[in-house]
Specification:
With 553 residues, this protein is of the alpha+beta class. It has helices at 2-28, 41-50, 72-75, 82-91, 94-121, 124-135, 138-146, 150-155, 159-170, 177-188, 192-202, 205-208, 218-252, 263-266, 270-277, 289-301, 307-322, 346-366, 371-399, 411-417, 432-436, 518-552, and strands at residues 34-36, 404-406, 440-442, 445-447, 451-453, 457-464, 469-475, 480-484, 487-489, 492-493, 498-502, 506-514. Helix 6 runs antiparallel to helix 18 (346-366). The chain is globular.
Length: 553
């Protein structure tokens, strides 16, 4: 009977999450078309996802990235977007595939939030409230609807896992270190910048735990250091498949990085952050009125709250401060942290902790009331969150002129013709227009040649009575392989940062391809086996925990 009730309970919860996820996607594309409002980032991510068909054989796909051999998938992790590729191929169209993928991401974000909150708080109502408030948060809405930062909001799935494991580890339950390692690895292998914000926000935790008696003996710190070190080592090993090949390319070539922005300028003004949060314009990248309500509740309740929730409140406030000009971002402008570009990225972490605190306080308020009152609380919060999404989405589409409208008729052309300069060789930037328009250089003279591409190979047929220096409009990276008439020939980087070869007299059947270097292959293998091993460790830990619980009950 108990198992039957559990099945009914989880079926209702799952269906609720699914309905909300479908509605969320419907608001994103109400007419079956997608409006690009802030940038062309979605075309960037579409190319990333759709080009993964040959990712195990080659780091580039010549059918995409405007056929220039861009190495984006070498500089941007791709593991967690693989399900998107599989969905695309199953449904046969990138547009419908993306909408299904977005629905899946939203659904999994809610499931992850519910699951790990329930493991931490052991309260169904609090877990449901947290899952809804976190997933439908104002800042995530901006990431999905306006900026379309696919990798960033995909990484939000793993944030509850990371902070759950961190909380357990700090509470002295040191066997949770594999969950922490797995969660951090998945965030890194999804969106490294989100991983940076998570690491930064975790730095105060060892200091804050000093105020709890659990840490008041040396054995605790010894075990914390040992198990924390295990997690860190495994995260590093699991991530080498991304970092080592990227570093290898950057050591071989000067690569064009994403835009360098002034952190002090892009950080939020505290006044404007608060003011914009009271409205429904997600273009402001603010907290939203529900998160502001959570901040007010922190001020009212935190003084008498449990230690764990005081930590949650402090972390929320730290994240808000880090997103604003209060923090001296100008002093970090010339450090690697300038890759963050926008300090307001910390607002998702702020929303995460504020959602925890708000769900906690709401449960605390209604805990002595009847089940009907608790159900009404859940429905009220759900309605408020859905209304915030609906009103913000309507306002966004009414007030923003789209840069482009993607439909099922034009999507393939939009994807295949998309061109972007991130991760180009630096030498290629002054000649980017030539490369974009596929201009060849024959002994320095511009010319047009017919070419064909497959995912792995760029093919061109060239005839000349004499040998010539041929500069092809293909970006040069380490790992290039060139053949003429099926015979391997040397390939060099031209003054344009493109592939340059010496042709033969007569007919030249030229093929250019890219292969993973030995270092890249080894690093990818290490990451793959480490990740599988980590999943097995976490699974084994889960089964051992279930056995212990069965013995107790």
């Amino acid at each position: 009977m108990a198992n039957h009730n559990k099945i009914i309970k989880y079926t209702i919860i799952g269906l609720t999450f699914l309905i909300i996820s479908i509605f969320y996607t419907f608001l994103f594309a109400p007419h079956g078309s997608i409006h690009l409002l802030d940038s062309y980032d979605l075309l960037f991510h579409w190319n990333r996802i759709d080009s993964l068909g040959n990712i195990l054989e080659s780091p580039t796909n010549f059918d995409y990235w405007n056929h220039v051999g861009n190495f984006t998938n070498m500089f941007y992790p791709w593991l967690t977007i693989l399900p998107g590729y599989l969905i695309y191929k199953l449904v046969g169209t990138p547009l419908l595939g993306f909408l299904i993928f977005l629905t899946l991401i939203t659904f999994l974000t809610m499931v992850s939030a519910y699951y790990f909150m329930n493991k931490w708080a052991h309260n169904t109502l609090q877990s449901l409230l947290f899952a809804i408030i976190y997933t439908l948060s104002f800042f995530r809405l901006a990431s999905v609807f306006y900026r379309v930062g696919v990798a960033e909001y995909l990484s939000y799935i793993f944030m509850p896992m990371v902070f759950y494991a961190a909380a357990k580890l700090l509470a002295g339950e040191f066997e949770s270190w594999p969950i922490l390692a797995l969660g951090m690895s998945l965030i890194i292998l999804t969106h490294p910048l989100t991983a940076v914000t998570v690491i930064i926000i975790m730095l105060p935790l060892p200091i804050l735990i000093l105020f709890n008696k659990v840490s008041h003996h040396w054995q605790y710190w010894g075990e914390l250091l040992v198990n924390g070190a295990k997690a860190i080592v495994l995260v590093i090993i699991t991530s080498v498949g991304f970092f080592l090949p990227m570093i290898e390319q950057k050591r071989a070539l000067q690569i064009n990085r994403p835009a360098l922005l002034d952190l002090a300028q892009t950080a939020q003004s505290p006044y404007l952050l608060f003011k914009n949060s009271l409205h429904t314009d997600i273009r402001s990248y603010s907290l939203g009125i529900i998160a502001i309500a959570a901040l007010i509740l922190i001020v009212l309740f935190v003084w008498q709250d449990k230690f764990s929730y005081r930590i949650v409140a402090i972390e929320a406030i730290i994240a808000v401060i880090l997103s604003t000009k209060i923090f001296p971002w100008s002093s970090l402008q010339n450090t690697p942290l300038n890759y963050l570009q926008f300090p307001w990225r910390f607002l998702n972490i702020a929303n995460f902790f504020l959602a925890i605190y708000l769900s906690h306080i709401l449960v605390k308020i209604v805990q002595k009331f009847s089940a009907i009152v608790k159900l009404m609380t859940l429905l009220t919060v759900m309605t408020a969150c859905v209304l915030q999404v609906y009103m913000s989405a309507q306002q966004l589409f009414q007030q923003t002129q789209p840069l482009a409208i993607i439909t099922s008729q034009n999507i393939n052309r939009q994807i295949h013709e998309f061109n972007q300069l991130d991760y180009y060789p630096q030498k290629s930037l002054p000649y980017s227009k030539q490369i974009k328009h596929h201009l060849f250089l024959v002994d320095g003279v511009k010319t047009k040649l017919n070419y064909q591409t497959t995912p792995d190979i760029y093919q061109v047929k060239y005839y000349n009575k004499k040998s010539a220096t041929l500069d092809l409009p293909i970006l040069f990276y380490k790992g290039v392989h060139a053949t003429i008439n099926n015979v391997t020939v040397p390939a060099h980087s031209s003054h344009r940062g493109t592939v340059q070869i010496q042709t033969q007299s007569g007919v030249n059947n030229i093929e250019i391809s890219y292969q993973y270097t030995i270092l890249a292959k080894v690093a990818l293998a290490i990451s793959c086996f480490s990740l599988i091993g980590l999943v097995l460790i976490v699974s084994e830990h889960k089964w051992q925990l279930l056995k212990k619980l069965r013995k107790v009950y």
